[in-house]
Design a protein that fits this description.
The radius of gyration is 26 Å and the shape is globular. It has 20 helices and 21 strands. Strands 12, 13, 14, 15, 16, 17, 18 and 21 form an eight-stranded mixed sheet that branches. Strands 3, 4, 5, 6, 7 and 8 form a six-stranded mixed sheet that branches. The chain has three domains: 3-157, DNA ligase, ATP-dependent, N-terminal domain (DNA ligase i, domain 1); 228-427, DNA ligase/mRNA capping enzyme (D-amino Acid Aminotransferase, Chain A, domain 1, 2-Layer Sandwich); 432-583, Nucleic acid-binding proteins (OB fold (Dihydrolipoamide Acetyltransferase, E2P), Beta Barrel). It is an alpha+beta fold. The N and C termini lie far apart (59 Å). The structure holds three DNA strands.
Amino acid sequence: MLFRELADTYERLEATSSRLEMTDILAEAFRRFDPSEIRMAVYLTQGQLYPDFNPLKLGMADKMILKAIAFASGAGESFVQDLMLKEGDPGIVAQKAFQNKKQTTLFSEPLTLKRTYETLEAIARSEGGGSQDLKIKLMSKLLSDASSPEAKFLSRVITGRMRLGVSSMTVLDALAVAFATKEDRDAVERAFNVSSDLGLVAEEMALHGLEGVRTIHVQVNRPLRAMLAERMSSPEEILEKMGGTCAFEYKYDGVRLQAHICKGEVRLFSRKLDELTSQFPDVVAGLKRTIRADSAIVEGECVPVDTNTGEFLPFQEVSHRRGRKYGVEEAIEDYPVKLCLFDCILKDGEDLTDRPFLQRREALMSIVEPDDSVALSEIRVLSSADEAQAFFQEAIKDGCEGLMAKSVAETSVYRAGNRGFLWIKYKKEYRSEMNDTVDLVVVGAFAGRGKRKGFYGALLMATYDPEADRFETVSKLGSGFDDANLAAILEMLSPDRIPEKHHLVDSKMEADFWFSPRLVLEVRGAEITLSPIHTCSFGSVRPDSGLAIRFPRFTGRFRDDKEGREATTSQELLAMYQAQLKRVE
DNA sequence: TTTGGCTGCCC
DNA sequence: ATTCTGC
DNA sequence: GCAGAATGGGCAGCCAAA
């Protein structure tokens, strides 16, 4: 099969915004494709090469694809970079760069899907000295042999942003339509949630239809897609949604872990299904001590703790553990963690995903003998908003983000991979009265990409230090803008544009555009963190660290009443940091 | 040998 | 992570 | 309300450049 066929399908998908139409386009394509090639096609459609749990990664993204485009098209690197700023999409950049190319590649062999995919695999496999050069060469060869639409989508696969309006849920719709019926969609989705491998599901559907997919079951050492939650900002609202009663549970601020236990062996997986076993040997040992089952899949939050006081520490602490390959033993000492278990997905070989939540909780309690390092999450079944609010306050006092609310209805199954209102998170920062906003000055901006093309994708925000008369960066800001905001901000900032960084601005970050510090926006965040890159109150808490805002977003409020020097001061931000319960010392 | 850009993945 | 938008 | 696509801070590792 030619890659061209897939690219043409992508063109048609891109041209519509109707999901029904996308489903039809995809279903028609899936029926047409040879079953032996559908797997590759499905991964590429997700902007991936493999399912999430495969540790092999492309190791090539935004910057490298631009180099490959420059190399293959003969355009200069700076030309390609400028084009990227303007177009906001590496696919369009590839197309435009090749328009100007002198010699055409009319005589090249058409790209087959197989060759395309195998070249991408070669890019993923290449490592060590000279590997970046090799990746660029391999990609550039593909681009040289590609037609314009092929080049576009090849470039987008590299960045993992296909921008088709199609993702896994639409692929599942299409698989059901193509190889079974719409009514069978749930079975298809379940196979995906349980196997975490859309390519496998597609291949099974193409080869054996629903029968194939029915052979896919929950299995130890095969991570399943994590169940996710919606958000709400009051216990009243939550209780109403949950039908009057639900379980409230501490929401710990750590790393989510899915632990697979079989005959004394333990493997750990992250929310995105990366294997974390080697990074948390202490947790592995803890589970071996505390779990009493031949086989089990349990889930919990891995939270940084102070081993002397038992108190929870900031998220940043456990970040030092994640992804670590070297110095793991030292890191266990320096950044100890506690695993707070909250669910049981499989027990002694039995799949519990279809059981109501409280049954799973009982199963969990029946196999865990908690100790200092492996605990059960704090949980209460409540029907009163007042009691829920009191429990919420306890959670905050104990250093948690807030509460999770979990349905206890008969229908409260473990819905892998699905958002939905079986689980709802209720965080401190959702309550405006418990979460201060800050007024920050725009000092710079970054070119928008994708649907933000032609606008600023994000702004560079600063506090004011009146002692030094300096503006110090504290955060980028790219969330909370609606379409009207984006257009308005573009206009509002145009008189402030300056060619270089303003002389009163302290920034280690290089923005695409710079402004005189004048426009003030109201910003909400979850908390203040220590930052290696932002300059706000730099050195005040720790040498070589400034302050930054975690989860920053625009509240929608323009502070037209303020000028630049009336922004929140760096000293005020420092005071807010020091007033926080959890601080890195 | 050190530094810094880039990537991927936690939240 | 949060947020917005078209369906 | 779902699904998708914009966007954040910050960490470790890899590789190339200094």
